[in-house]
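Record pair follows.
FIRST:
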Amino acid sequence: MDLAFTPEEQAFREEVRTWVQANLPKEISHKVHNALRLTRDDMQGWAKILGKKGWLAFGWPKEFGGPGWTAVQKHLFEEECALAGAPRIIPFGPVMVAPVIMAFGNAEQQKRFLPGIASGEVWWSQGYSEPGSGSDLASVKTRAERVGDKYIVNGQKTWTTLGQHGDWMFNLVRTSTEGKPQTGISFLLVDMKSKGVTVRPIKLLDGECEVNEVFFDNVEVPAENLIGEENKGWTYAKHLLSHERTNIADVNRSKRELERLKRIARAEGVWDPTEGGADAVRFRDQIALLEVDIVALEMLVLRVLSAEKSGKNSLDIAGLLKIKGSEIQQRYAELMMLAAGPFAMPFIEEAMEAGWQGNFPGGVVANAPLASTYFNLRKTTIYGGSNEVQRNIVAQTVLG
């Protein structure tokens, strides 16, 4: 196992770094580095910039219009984007549904849907979770009934991330109730502008409507929007989830946020023992423990990349990456709150929008989003398959 980057890979890193620094809008990177809220235009604007370069589809093979990068190059690209303060690529289109369309869609579907994903023009949403069907995804109840050359869809999806911005949604729908629950699920692409689709935002603890409920009331979906075969959607869903859980680990963002944590610790006097005394020593110990775990997570990711690079089977550790990555995200958010102490407590939405703490004594710009970040990241150990469920999967598939 060789975890060192080759000279060619280092040159590639420099190429990406130079291009990102030249093309990433400064106002967007400022927001990302300071955890200020990103608008739809911020997120999609960066996606379109990447799309023009041909890098939004950074994980795609050349035959589908991607750059054909190796696993290592993809990792380096994501790392340089994260460290530069680029918004995280919204994964639902380029990272999640696109590989399913490539692997299981027909030529017409590939021609129809992939270009809009690669350019960043079309925003995709994910229709998996339902009330009562979160970690138990096989129990989905949203029904799609075939009537002639169309499906009639009725039901509800929930926790749909950024669904209020979606143009299209890929959905798991029930097309049969016979046999095991997994055998009656199909994978359907739905135009969110269709009659009968209603999106209702859910306001979260951090004041944002990041997730949504989506209702389907006799929504007509052309049968040509079915991916693959009817009742085989569970196979396609598992293919997609392997991409999602690896993406959720998000080690590159954790490396960037570690540096933000250190900046906050310095500003609050809990970094230098000459200022903070024993408290600063103890706090730096906690940061060091976090940094060790981030390095260990990165090594785990690089082990997977090394296996792919050498032609070996990739390690089946998506669950481990998800567990550790999500726990790290919660830990750095908590340490940022502890560093600022009571100055992190006030949660004022207007302050979040403006990037300041108002007239609160002792408040500084860096403190404004801390509570919001902390509240938001409580979700990470739940979504994408809760960590309790992931531990069961790891026990069965890795430990035997």
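SECOND:
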Amino acid sequence: MTAITHIGLAVPDLDAAIKWYEQVLGFRLLAGPYSFDAGAENEHNMTNDLLGDDVKKMRNAHLMADNGVGIELFEFVDPRMPKGESRGYEGFFHICLIADDIEKLADDIAASGGRRRSDIWNTWENKPYYLIYCEDPFGNIIELYSRSTELMYGNKDRQEQPPI
């Protein structure tokens, strides 16, 4: 493995999610939105190969961060993903972002329909390595880091590392 190119997130409203990720987090739309209808596809197709035959209709779009890493947003139309329901640990998934001012960004997330889930945490005593857990308006967890993962967790005694 040489790099992470993108991750996928499920959202109940693709257009609202694109707008939110652009306006609040600064992503830019790279490709899409695309629509998928299994009835209009070949019997064997890439979408059902990935997601299974239960997915009949969906929409998706690719967004890009300034560092070249992207997210792919999926709106499942049939079967429909319920709006406004937190998925808890079922299919637990989250995105982790680096920000210059994680407290301000956490406040911006909360003010724009998301929420701040935690206090600010220091991951390494006597180092300026902080994180805050938030949630987008669609139920996905967003972890905000003050530094890269390498700095946040590298070169530490394994016994001193926090559980997450």
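COMMENT: The chain has four helices and eight strands.
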